[in-house]
Amino acid sequence: MTMKGMMLGTALAAALAAAPARGEDFIPMRMMAPGLALDLARAALEECRTRGFQVAVAVVDRMGVPQVMLRDALAGPHTPETAIGKARAAVSFRTPTEELSALTQAGQVNSAIRHIPGFVFLGGGVPIEAGGMIVGGVGISGAPGGAEDDACARAGIAAVEERLLM
């Protein structure tokens, strides 16, 4: 490293050290604890079971990273990845996948987003909100249709709704 480069590096380090941290330089975040995500997934799975459906349930955090995955014994082999893709789409686009399914049909302005790897635009993914913020998403796969998957996802959220109030 040249003398000029060393001086520049020293000056930059000094400037950064002298600059006070500002509140607007940080983003406050809320994340679901694993216990809350697991309880939500269990409630959604139980709702689907009472309706006679063998499904997979995925809960992802606000960044779309899976926190919980539950698969019923007879749910198909495709259901875990599909549930994660639905949950990820719901949280990423901040919209239930039932709505996204209609908005992304062929010929629609947003149809190209269906080609993003790792996202599934079929009904059954619902964003999870707490205190007006998206804190995660839940996705269900394996019921006979998106509306049934969606109903189970919403039942899971409803089961922990009191814990989501901040």
Structural summary, described in words:
Helix content is 44%, strand content 16%. It contains six helices and four strands; from the N terminus they run H-H-E-E-H-H-E-E-H-H. It has helices at residues 3-18, 34-50, 79-93, 97-103, 146-159, 161-164, and strands spanning 56-61, 66-71, 125-130, 133-141. Strands 2-1-4-3 form a four-stranded antiparallel sheet. A hairpin with a 2-residue loop joins strand 3 (125-130) and strand 4. The chain starts with a helix and ends with a helix.
User: What is the CATH topology?
Assistant: Beta-Lactamase
Number of helices: 6
Termini gap: 52 Å
| Total separate domains | 1
Note the beta-strand portion.
15-25%
Which architecture name does CATH use?
A: 2-Layer Sandwich
User: Which range best describes the helical content: under 10%, 10-25%, 25-40%, 40-55%, 55-70% or over 70%?
Assistant: 40-55%
What does the average pLDDT come to?
90
Categorize the overall geometry: globular
How are helices and strands ordered from N to C?
A: HHEEHHEEHH
Poorly predicted regions are none
What is the CATH first-level class name? Alpha Beta
Count the strands?
4
Oligomer: single chain
Brief descriptors of the model:
four-stranded antiparallel β-sheet, 166 residues, globular, alpha+beta, Beta-Lactamase, 16% strand
Secondary structure elements and pairings:
Blueprint (H helix, E strand, L loop, with lengths): L2 H16 L15 H17 L5 E6 L4 E6 L7 H15 L3 H7 L21 E6 L2 E9 L4 H14 L1 H4 L2
Antiparallel strand pairs: 1-2, 1-4, 3-4
Describe the structure in brief.
By secondary structure, the chain is α+β, with helices and mostly antiparallel strands. The chain contains 6 helices and 4 strands, in the order H-H-E-E-H-H-E-E-H-H.
